[in-house]
Amino acid sequence: MPDTTIRSNTEVVLIGAGIMSATLGLILKELQPDIKIEIFERLDIAAAESSDAWNNAGTGHSAFCELNYTPEQKDGSIDPQKAISIAESFEVSRQFWAYLVEEGKVPSPENFIKSIPHLSFVWGEKNVAYLKKRFQVLQQNQLFKDMVFSTDLKELEQWMPLVMEGRETKEKVAATSMKIGTDVNFGALTRSMFSYLSTLDGVTIHYNHEVDRLRQNDDASWRIKITDLATGQKRKVYTKFVFIGAGGGSLPLLEKANVPEGEGYGGFPVSGQWLKCTNPEVIAKHAAKVYGKASVGAPPMSVPHIDSRMINGEKQLLFGPFAGFSTRFLKNGSYSDLPLSITTDNIWPMISAGIKNIPLTKYLIEQVRQSTEDRIKALREYVPNAKSEDWVIERAGQRVQVIKKDEKEGGILEFGTEVITTLDGSLAVLLGASPGASTAVSIMLDLVARCFKEQAASPEWQTKFKEMIPSYGQTLNDNPELSDQIRKHTSVVLNLNQH
Predict the structure, then answer these.
(1) Which residue windows are transmembrane per the record (predicted)?
(2) Has this prediction a pTM greater than 0.85?
């Protein structure tokens, strides 16, 4: 039989049509308009997995309200560094989105970003003391200077009437508020970005295409075998650079690439569910993102929050997410994903990390065993008057927490995002979950600097970086004047009614 395989040559291959690939593709086309890019996605649309609005928290993880980014140290002090770093990264994302809107490359910012206060809410003397300390530490920083702390019941009722209605007033409660918070629909944003990318010369997007094999050639280039899932047609693509941004599907592809930098990496899948409100009157009462404290052992994606969202033009109210365990690596994945990912390289790091994370295992077992009544009971800690008939279960996203080899400890479970790049810069892989989407621009800028070193250092690319990101090379937290100027500018461009 004749070989009917389609062959093509390109400069860049992006695997996975999520926010990461969309961001990297756009950045590269801005830096080098004639660059040739091919994008491959297993599903029939962009942003159907982790980037979809139902599958992520949508807070625009700016670290205003997520308490897991400001851990309390053994001596009682609060470490703000992770929160500051994430807030910085989110400001970079906002600048890039504002640039795309100004240039007419992404239309209608109101379709993907809206203003909404970000609140942290706690109860009990110990938690109130923690929140006050966190507030005092963060408010000293430029990026958090607008944070307000309150224990006043009347003020809290104004901030979050649904949360305070019917609450037992004997218990000590406190909250912080950041009015300049946002709600980001990363699915809508990603699809807008791909819509623009698809109009550009030199960009080809292939949906319903699955990557079967990746092999590096002697000259450091890559050959990739791909199947068109709709027709069965085989394809071979030859390229200088590959980015794997396939969410939970990235780990199996990293293993297929067979590079030394990928040795020892494993993945621990965590699934999620929301309680979704179906009563329009209840939905209308809440207009904030209210985050609480995570349970002991809970992964970051499971920090409880009562969350007002705009999804596909409709106001939604979600509570959760409730964590669970599935052996799938993607929402649309296979139950064999986890067993097939175990290799002789990563089995010990995975066992070792599992032994050290017994509280997480215990937490996930408890979550899986929860009944609907148990979930409603958890909801009533945040919405005391919640009625079970007003809420239904909605399936949320699937995340794969990174497990990596460690010489001393055998294996470490990482809750953040991890970018792996080969020594020659020809392959980059993004693993992990939170904070993910909201920091995509910073992650991709760093990736470009690592994988396209010579071009990134050139005056032409440096000038373009500064055009796309006005604060490029500077730290907003250390520069109040620039920070205020940029926040004001991006708020105007993105139609955010922020002060």
Answers:
(1) none
(2) yes
